[in-house]
What does this fold into?
Amino acid sequence: MSSARLFRYGRAAMQIHVALSQPLGWRDARLNTIPVVHLSDGSGSTGIACAEAEAGLLPRRPTVVVGQQYVLDAGRVPPGAAALWLQLQETPSTPRGDAAGELDTAQGWTPELAHGYADRVLNRIAGHAPDLPGKVLAVDVIAPPDLTRRNPNAVDGDPYGGSLELDQSFLWRPLPASGRHATDIRGLWHIGASTHPGPGLGGISGHMVATTLTTGARFARLPRLSPGRRIRG
It folds into this structure.
């Protein structure tokens, strides 16, 4: 079996886009000007949500990434209006149940299930911004299958180009035998979330390859590790 067949994809993600008539009124007014808010009960709660998603369950209390990009760029919304970009990083690609016992997952990611779960997420936000329900104009839900259809690289709804567990990170990404950006084909380089240093917004893998090509840096030409070789130390 080729080592590439051992590559694993991670949990799926779900996105919710919300159009608002006005900006949210957070209970903590300091959040009114924060472009990205992570809503969680703490590391324990996030750990439980991750475990539920890994088990194929819709988390009872998901961690919610709340994007309010309009506070940095008012041109994203009509004058006086607002919008939320919500990301859920603890989502099963194929739901087998609901940890809260409220939603029917028997048919998989139907529009009804996606919007039902979105309601749970919005209610969670409303606990910290009570005026949310009265300001919602429209909601667009992108479930894991939708994400895959829109981006073939998001296999099974995984937006990060593969699991980020230790054996698929750093010099072992994407594979222990090819933990570098060079390939066996002369002049062909591999960049993106599936390569070192993994997913992010900085384009670091491309920067590292460009640095190698323009300055002769040696990082992308590190010796390969055979699949059975161990590292000491």
